[in-house]
Each structure stands twice: as structure tokens, then as C-alpha cells.
Amino acid sequence: MTTTTAPAAGLTTATPVLEASGVIMRFGGLTAVNNVNLTVGQGEIVGLIGPNGAGKTTFFNCLTGLYVPTEGTVKYKGTVLPPKPHLVTQAGIARTFQNIRLFANMTVLENVLVGRFSRTKEGIFSAILRGPGFHRAEAESREKAMELLEFCGLANKAEHLARNLPYGEQRKLEIARALASDPGLLLLDEPTAGMNPQETVAAEELVFAIRDKGIAILVIEHDMKFIFNLCDRTAVLVQGQKIVEGDKETVQNDERVITAYLGAPLEGTGTPEADADTSTTSTEADK
Ligand SMILES: Nc1ncnc2c1ncn2[C@@H]1O[C@H](COP(=O)(O)OP(=O)(O)OP(=O)(O)O)[C@@H](O)[C@H]1O
User: How close is the Cα of 250 to the center of ligand 1, in Å?
Assistant: First the structure.
């Protein structure tokens, strides 16, 4: 993978926020991600769906520097990203995880402050000496963190321990912490897993509000209702390959998607999928 970090010339508003090109991730003999191209534009919410083991989380890990792709490049706003998680965060990409990763014994506010760390200029010496610069930066970080908790509906829980929050609020806290790094792109890995229907609707509203702040979003989710309510565009991964990408109708009506999820296309069962037009669209696999 290329690791150049020099800013790209000619950055325009049409430059995608995220541009993954030819991303391949092999684990020994297994190709978990196979030549995937994906872009996310400014102001877009893009969905990434696929059956279990399709390679969705592995692809996220390639985008965020947790894995170094075997082949391919990942650009953020026209600049190739270095494959190191902290540098990817600094560049402007934040993420949440499928399995919640909070600091369970820290307060809600402290969890968000940790997320703010990549944006504070004060270094280790300033922190040890606790000079005026440190106190100013700390006050600013706390103010920003409280704003984010307010935005995510958690301000009244700021002093609670993270581990004492109900599950749905822990997921919201992960999002607040990710937002603390001031991202231009937020990657959400199964944000509604384990949520009840009311929490899922609240999560949907939160994602729209994040997009309205000008943050682009790429979201993995198994809940199709959530994905199709939310996303401008959805890509489908099957066995590491992107088989189709498009709007709700394009994806829902694609025979290969139905086959991938159900094992075989159904006809006349009364399900929306079964009764849908099964015209095909161009795919990565076709290219
Ligand atoms: N570190 C690893 N080493 C070896 N194989 C891996 C590794 N990470 C993932 N895999 C394999 O890569 C494939 C894709 O896994 P991945 O977790 O990305 O799928 P997924 O689409 O996110 O699945 P799910 O929806 O169940 O979370 C699986 O076969 C998995 O076992």
C-alpha cells in the first residue's frame, strides 16, 4: 500500500471524502476483501451490507489502518492515508466498533475526552507541568465534550460510569467519542446491534443529525430497514467482492443480493424481495 501523505493537488468539492481503490486483504489463503472500490462523497450516507463473513469489518479495518491492505489504496479527501490508526484518526476518519469498546470504569465525559485527545495540541510535558496552556486546553476539551454529549442526548449522564449505561446509550457514547476527534468521515460498524426498535429509531435520527453537521458516513448494518431508511447509496459485499451498489431499489431488486441472503431467489411468496423486479445492474465482479 502506498503511504504518501502529501496533500493532493486540485482538491475540489467534487473530491470524494473517501476513495478506496482496488482494496484486497488476504489472510493466508483466504481473500477476505477482493478488489473493492468504494467512494463516499461529501454529505453522503453510504451503507455497506452483506451476509456474515462477507468481509465488511475487514474492509473497515483496511480503511482505518488496523490492517494494511495486501493491495490497494485508501484516500481521504484526495490524500492517500498512512496505514496507522492514530494517523487515520488525525487525518479525519473516526469509527465505532461492532463490539462496544468503551473505557467501562471511566465516566461518560471522560470517555469523550479520550476521543478529543487527537485534537489537543498540548503535549506530554504540558500535561505533567499543568501550566496555563494545559488548563485552557482542558477547559476547551470539556466544553466540546459536553456539547457532544448534549448532541447525542447523554449530557445528563456525563458523570455516570460508562459500564452503568444501558446498552443503547453505550452505543451512543461510542458515537460521541468518535465525534470528539472532529471527523470528516464517520464509520459505523453495526450501530444498532442489540438495540430495541425505539433505540434504533433514535440511532437513525442521530445519524441524520451527524450528516447534517457535514460529516460523511459509511455504515455497516444487518438491519435492512435501518439501512434503506438511512442511506443514499448501499454497496453489497459477498465473499469479499462488491457485487452491486446503488440506491434502495437497485439493491433490493438485484437477484444476486436475494440469492446471497436467502440462498436462492424466491418467487411469488409475497415478500418484497420475492416480488421485486430482478433486473440486473453492473457489478465489480463483472468488470
Ligand atoms: N485477522 C484475521 N485473520 C484471519 N481471518 C480473518 C481475520 N479477520 C477476518 N478474517 C476472516 O475474513 C472473513 C471476513 O470477516 P469479516 O469479519 O470481515 O466479515 P463481516 O462481513 O464483517 O462479518 P459479520 O457480518 O459477521 O461481522 C471471515 O472469513 C473471517 O473469518
Answer: 26
Tell me the ipTM for this assembly.
Answer: 0.97
Q: What is the CA radius of gyration of the chain?
A: 20
Among 33, 34, 48, 57, which residue has the most ligand 1 atoms within 8 Å of its CB, making it the best to mutate? 57
Provide residues with CB under 6 Å of ligand 1. Answer: 27, 30, 32, 50, 52-58, 98
Q: Which residues contact 121 (CB under 8 A, 6 or more apart)?
A: 137
As a whole number of angstroms, the longest Cα–Cα distance in the chain is: 72
Cα(30) to centroid(ligand 1), Å: 10
Residue 141 CA to ligand 1 center (angstroms) comes to 36
* Domains parsed from the chain with CATH numbers: 16-92+183-287 (3.40.50.300), 105-182 (no CATH)
Reading the chain (287 residues) residue by residue, the pLDDT tens digits are: 443 334 445 555 678 999 999 999 999 999 999 999 999 999 999 999 999 999 999 999 999 999 999 999 999 999 999 888 999 999 999 999 988 889 999 999 999 998 887 666 655 555 566 666 667 777 888 999 999 999 999 999 999 999 999 988 999 999 999 999 999 999 999 999 888 899 999 999 999 999 999 999 999 999 999 999 999 999 999 999 999 999 999 998 888 888 887 665 444 433 444 333 333 333 333 33
User: Which of 86-109 are b and which e, b meaning 16 or more Cβ less than 10 Å from the residue's Cβ?
Assistant: eebbebbbbbbbeebebeeeebbb
Q: Tell me, what amino acid is at 115?
A: G
Q: How many residues does the chain have?
A: 287
The answer to whether the CB of 80 falls within 8 A of the CB of 87 is: no
Ligand 1 center from residue 55 Cα (angstroms): 5
Ligand 1: residue of 23, 24, 30 to mutate (most ligand atoms within 8 A of CB) is: 30
